[in-house]
Design goal:
By secondary structure, this protein is α+β, with helices and mostly antiparallel strands. The chain has helices at 11-23, 40-44, 63-73, 89-97, 107-114, 116-125, 141-151, 174-192, 249-265, 298-305, 309-317, 396-408, 419-425, 429-433, 440-445; strands at 4-7, 27-33, 47-52, 77-79, 101-102, 155-159, 168-171, 197-201, 207-215, 221-233, 236-242, 270-279, 284-291, 334-341, 353-354, 357-359, 366-370, 377-378, 385-393, 411-413. This is biotin carboxylase.
């Protein structure tokens, strides 16, 4: 096992990684911006290095600053968490070139999966189902229109280099496609430095289901169950649960097997997630993208399998066998996670501010991974995620009951908070039935779901 670890991230995921590393006896190094000096992860690490101002480009996205911190502290390895530089192949390569251990997949896998069109083509060749769409970038709006004619409207217009639900729009006809194509291409050029656009079939009623994979040190790829991620706003997740209530045993087996093939196709090592769209009408699933990092929602997988995914990441990076027998993996119970964000519960707009009161729920089967606490400040410089509330129960009904109690017992005063939305969701008949899709939040806000 490696001996020292620099965590190139902030907030709750930095605390999460530090917690496991310290349990394993690994010396931990935090890096932080000027805006984050008062957050818990800074004091919980064995050592902390100030790397720049609040602007992420000058701190958490600065490869030079992070590598300098690793050198000055004698770090042996770097864990990127999620977001920031976690899926930056050039940074991963630079870490290795500096003689450090990269806790994640190799740069080649990150590159292969970082472009949605390339990823689609690789997955199709590996026998993983993909939705009808373009195999090359739509270089002009005329190319996009020609592709849409062949695919059939409605279509999804996507930034090929995008991620995290960004750079996506739906077009229902030619006029809409002309408008959305230019918007997405412009956004992609500004945000990702790559204006390549993908045109893909849009499914009006679809579920978003992902599979946790782990590429082991010996070369095997294993699937650690699926996660239902269909409760979203602006194509970004709010609630995740496992197992998915949408799948029957055959569909689940097919989905997990396809995810393993996806990982094997790129020689995947360490933790990653194969994201898919599931059409509940036909029972078919289609590859969406692969996230070459640890996911925000990884705790629900940990809950039902009884493993620590960060520990498994560190073991793979150290060349060690996993703590579990892949052939003996079994799901126990049901787990649900909600993302407690500093945003209003109606329009989901950010509402940062100083936290004057912070009371976390406790009890059997309740876990809170928080990046903040009383007396800390949520700034507008970063994502609005404050904490992840996770519950684990004997079955879905038990987990829902525990979540209802935990949401009611979670108090955050100061910034805006979306906890009232979760209370509303837990009284929603569509969500409670398990028969919901990615349109549920929109229907709730338009009065179409009770």
């Amino acid at each position: 096992m490696l001996s020292s670890l620099l965590v190139a991230n902030r907030g709750e995921i930095a605390r999460r990684i530090i917690r496991t590393a310290r349990r394993l006896g690994i010396r931990t190094i935090a890096v932080y911006s000027e805006a984050d000096a008062g957050l818990p992860f800074v004091s919980e690490a064995n050592e902390a290095v100030l790397i720049g101002p609040a602007n992420p480009a000058q701190s958490y996205r600065s490869a030079e600053a992070i590598l300098a911190a690793a050198k000055s502290t004698g770090a042996e390895a770097i864990h990127p968490g999620y977001g920031f530089l976690s899926e930056n192949a050039a940074f991963a390569a630079a870490v290795v070139e500096h003689g450090l251990i990269w806790v994640g997949p190799g740069p080649e896998a990150i590159t292969a999966m970082g472009d949605k069109i390339n990823a689609r083509n690789l997955m199709s060749a590996a026998g993983v189902p993909v939705a009808p769409g373009t195999t090359d970038p739509a270089a002009t709006v005329e190319d996009a229109l020609a592709a849409a004619t062949g695919i059939g409207y409605p279509v999804m217009v996507k930034a090929a280099a995008g991620g995290g639900g960004m750079g996506m729009a739906v077009a229902t006809d030619e006029a809409g496609l002309r408008t959305e194509y230019e918007k997405v291409r412009g956004f992609a050029e500004r945000m990702f430095g790559d204006g390549a656009v993908l045109i893909e079939r849009y499914f009006p009623r679809v579920r978003h289901i992902e599979v946790q994979i782990l590429g082991l040190a010996d070369g095997r790829v294993v699937a650690l169950g699926e996660r239902e991620c269909s409760v979203q706003r602006r194509n970004q997740k709010l609630v995740e649960e496992t197992p998915s209530p949408a799948l029957d045993p055959r569909q689940r087996a097919d989905l997990l097997a396809a995810a393993v093939r996806a990982g094997e196709a790129v020689g995947y090592r360490n933790a990653g997630t194969v994201e898919c769209l599931f059409d509940p009408t036909s029972g078919q699933f289609f590859f969406l993208e692969m996230n070459t990092r640890l996911q925000v929602e990884h705790p629900i997988t940990e809950a039902v399998f009884g493993i620590d995914l960060v520990e498994e990441q560190l073991r793979v990076a150290s060349g060690l066998a996993p703590t579990f027998d892949p052939a003996a993996l079994r799901v126990t119970g049901h787990a649900i996670e909600v993302r407690v964000n500093a945003e209003d519960p109606k329009r989901f707009l950010p509402g940062p501010g100083a936290i004057t009161s912070w009371v976390e729920p406790t009890g059997a089967g309740v876990r809170v991974d928080a990046g903040y606490g009383p007396g800390t400040v949520v700034t507008p410089s970063y994502d609005s995620l404050m904490a992840k509330l996770v519950v684990h129960g004997a079955d879905r009904a038990d987990a829902l009951a525990r979540l209802r109690t935990a949401v009611a017992g979670f108090e955050v005063v100061g910034p805006k908070v979306n906890l009232p939305f979760f209370a509303e969701l837990l009284d929603n008949t569509e969500f409670l039935s398990g028969d919901y899709d990615t349109g549920i939040v929109g229907r709730m806000r338009s009065g179409g779901v009770r």
